[in-house]
Amino acid sequence: MFNFAKNIAGGIHPVDDGKSLTRNQPIERLNELPPRLYLQLKQHPGAKALAIVREGDAVSAGQLIASANGRFSAPVHAPLNGRVVGVDEQQIEIKPDRVQIPPPPQPIKETPPHEPALMLELIKNAGIVGMGGAMFPLYDKLELCDKYDIDSLLINGSECEPYMTCDDRVMREQSAQIVGGIRLLMQITKAKQAIIGIEKNKPEAIDAMTSATSEDENIHVHPLPALYPLGSSKQLIRALTGIQLAEGRRSASYGVLVHNVASCIAVFEAIRIGRPMTHRVVTISGRAVTQPRNILAPIGTPISHLISQCGGLVQTPTQQIMGGPMMGRMITSVHQPIVKGTCGILMLDETESNISVPSSCLRCGRCAQVCPMQLQPLHLLPLVQHEQFDEAKTHGLSQCLSCGACAYVCPASLPLTASFNWGKFELKKQRYMTTKSETTRQRAADHQQRLAAEAEAKKAAKAAKAAKRKSRRNSPAQEETI
């Protein structure tokens, strides 16, 4: 049925993964409405969504407020009833109503639409993006099933990032909705089977999902070793199927698509009850937080409001991170909002932060041992530092996952991940400049070709006109008829 690859390359398992802070904290709703919601117009890789509301407009929960703008773009909906108090090029600001009147309950449809095209349209209109962090529009990913035959859906429940427990809680509390979404995705893609990968450090989630899939012969739960970054798509595919993706190849070309467990719930809600993507579960954690929690929050809620829901801070955090500690990004303000891909907010104290002064490379080779892509970070680093980007690319820089495993184990505290991210950015910039230069050259060549063609056409027209005049002069005069 599937080939589980026992020998997974690289990876790490932190001694203290921080999950104990929130593992047993059930998902909560906000006690108080945020004073403002800030809905970003770009919560996806494509162009910014186009705002279709104006300042002063009243909006209701679930209402479309920004439409998709081309491929890889996704629409944005109002999470709560309220009034638009600001619209600019970056975001839509909404002041929620003090009293929220919940919409009347929608009966769950006994039978969802059977036409894949109709279900795809519902997913597209709901603005669902990948909730594992990449925020790739789900509609665009599912469209690949028109080009490729999909054999297997891999459902990512590994949640390998330290501290993060939102997916763990979702699997334990909403397993039926996850399985319902998986069934719908299997109808859309015509996949023969679905495999749910869950790390063994989540026994309750494994039990809940196993129970929820007990009547589905084609949906399987597979425990995985607790190893970071096993939640990365390439590593998950290799672990659950044995397939090792070639560079530049899409997983769909191998007959495989990967979806996050929270994305499956969003699919279920969009198709069965017509609910767009307006909320998500976020892990608020770190020892600088008074009471770490898992919170179901409206998209656009300021981070500061979520921290207040957790009782505030017990001390000034040494590091503030949006996402996990390995692949998340540092933030300087808690007033920015969460987006569709925000799985966690971390407020770390000095005992949790890994802040140290870099020293010279010890040539210990630990970075190479833990690299899940089997690269040689100690050889890549000097190439990037000396801006030898083409040479670094030949040594696999483009294949780097930016997982941070190499930097985590480096005894010299070298900025490996940051350097490789910068190198990949420079490679991307080089590709952009090369494409831009080639486009400019091609346009100039096309312009010269058009000018030459126009000149040739004018010359031919002039010659034809001269030949016509000459023909008239040389023709015998017509005799007059009396």
UniProtKB/TrEMBL annotation:
Ranges of Basic and acidic residues composition bias in the record: 438-459
Provide the E.C. number(s) assigned to this enzyme.
7.-.-.-
Q: Which UniProt keywords apply?
A: 4Fe-4S, Cell inner membrane, Cell membrane, Electron transport, Iron, Iron-sulfur, Membrane, Metal-binding, Repeat, Translocase, Transport
One of its Pfam families is: SLBB
Q: Which InterPro entries match?
A: 4Fe4S_Fe-S-bd, 4Fe4S_Fe_S_CS, Ion_transpt_RnfC/RsxC, Nuo51_FMN-bd, Nuo51_FMN-bd_sf, RnfC_N, Soluble_ligand-bd
Record field: compositional bias (Basic residues): 460-473
- State if Nucleus is listed as a keyword: no
Q: How does it sit in the membrane?
A: Peripheral membrane protein
- Supply the Gene3D superfamilies for this chain: 3.30.70.20, NADH-ubiquinone oxidoreductase 51kDa subunit
Record's GO cellular component terms: plasma membrane
Question: Which cellular compartments is it found in?
Answer: Cell inner membrane
The free-text note explaining how the cofactor binds reads: Binds 2 [4Fe-4S] clusters per subunit.
Q: Which GO terms describe its biological process?
A: electron transport chain
Residue ranges annotated for the 4Fe-4S ferredoxin-type domain, each copy included: 351-381, 391-419
What GO MF terms are annotated? 4 iron, 4 sulfur cluster binding; electron transfer activity; metal ion binding
- Record-annotated residues binding [4Fe-4S] cluster 1? 361, 364, 367, 410
Region feature (Disordered): 434-482
Cofactor(s) needed for function: [4Fe-4S] cluster
Q: Which PANTHER family match?
A: ION-TRANSLOCATING OXIDOREDUCTASE COMPLEX SUBUNIT C
The Swiss-Prot or TrEMBL record describes its family as follows: Belongs to the 4Fe4S bacterial-type ferredoxin family. RnfC subfamily.
Its quaternary structure?
The complex is composed of six subunits: RnfA, RnfB, RnfC, RnfD, RnfE and RnfG.
What does this gene product do? Part of a membrane-bound complex that couples electron transfer with translocation of ions across the membrane.
NCBIfam families per UniProt: PRK05035.1 (NF003454), rnfC (TIGR01945)
Protein name (Swiss-Prot/TrEMBL):
Ion-translocating oxidoreductase complex subunit C
- Species this protein is from: Celerinatantimonas diazotrophica
| Organism placement in taxonomy | Bacteria, Pseudomonadati, Pseudomonadota, Gammaproteobacteria, Celerinatantimonadaceae
GN (gene name): rnfC
